[in-house]
Amino acid sequence: MSLIVTGTIGIDTVVTPNGHGEKILGGSCTYFAAAANFYGPVRLVAAVGGDFPAEFLGTLGHFRGIDLHGLEVRKNSKTFAWGGKYHADMNTRDTLFTELGVLAEAPPKVPALYADSTIVFLANTHPGVQLGFLDQLPKRVFTVADTMDLWINIAKDELKALLKRVDGLVLNFDEAELFTGKSNPVTAGRHMLDMGPKFVVIKKGEHGALLVHRDGIAAVPAYPTENVVDPTGCGDTFAGGMMGSIAATSPSDGAAAGSYDSVRRALVHGTIIASFNIEAFSLDRLKTLDKKTLDARYAEYAAMMRV
Ligand code: AMP
Question: Which pLDDT tens digit goes with each residue over 107-131?
């Protein structure tokens, strides 16, 4: 067992031009873990409140690779809740509300059982919580963090401190622009490399993802799809595919895990699993996905990219 994630588990309300999901299972580490589960086991550390529906616990349990020993259910607290509404192009969205709930309390602790984790993903949550998580993982060899506009706006100094301690950062293009003030993604990526990490992955929705690594640059197009229902969690499932595939190939060698070739290949796995997530609300598509269908789309994409 090597891969561990912390982040949010949320009750989401999502409005897209194609539909509407009210109080559905979401959260950054929920989507991440569901995606990473297709590549191997993943340890989840997160907290929910007493209002967390039993049905959602059942959904998490459906993904056999997700280890839930690190899930804290706090009877007298409220689960993190988030609402978002997508614009007509589905590439951009407005946050309608964010109710921090358990996120405003002490962060969940890493169980002793997980202390030997080597590959670490810090899904979207407060950068202070992300920093505290790292301190509890002495055996880690490879660490990647995600962030988002809220934290760039309210916790920029902690985010900068975090960048000094991670191998990689994953974020959306508009967040990279907000963070660095640079409107060219390559320039923004290089600017962030100067703050500490070995690589930065800048996601651009339907326009794919850009890797800016100390050893080179790579652009990975999105899988072309017509079946766009709900993009929520695509960033997290992308990260789950990316980190899950890295943990499966380099579970204990940080240099191999973070090499240009390793991360570039991992971006393709992230791209493919995210293309399934977009086909339904919540984890509905990942719940019915099987490895054969996932591998077939990967092969189709690889053939499409061959020149
Ligand atoms: P994504 O579409 O990949 O950005 O992920 C959306 C998920 O992140 C939703 O399911 C939300 O519950 C969760 N989320 C929204 N805002 C935040 C935030 N500020 N910090 C952590 N998680 C968040």
Answer: 999 999 999 999 999 999 999 999 9
CATH of residue 198: 3.40.1190.20
Q: Which domain holds residue 147?
A: 3-305
Q: What is the pLDDT of residues 128-140, one digit of tens each?
A: 999 999 999 999 9
Angle CA 206–210–211, to nearest 5: 150
Cβ–ligand 1 distance for 28 under 6 Å, the answer: yes
Distance 203 CA to ligand 1 centre (A): 15
The finding on whether 27 has its CB within 6 A of some atom of ligand 1 is yes
Distance 127 CA to ligand 1 centre (A): 14
Confirm or reject: Cβ of 12 under 6 Å from ligand 1: yes
Number of Cα atoms under 13 Å in the Cβ half of residue 290: 2
pTM score above 0.70: yes
The total of structural domains in the chain comes to: 1
For residue range 43-85, what is the model confidence (pLDDT) as tens digits? Answer: 999 999 999 999 999 999 999 999 999 999 999 999 999 999 9
Percent helix, strand, coil in the chain (nearest 5)?
A: 40, 25, 35
How far apart are the CA of 267 and the centre of ligand 1, in A? 20
Tell which residue, 305, 284, 280, 289, has the closest CA to residue 241. Answer: 289
Give the model's confidence band at 105: pLDDT under 50 very low, under 70 low, under 90 confident, else very high: very high
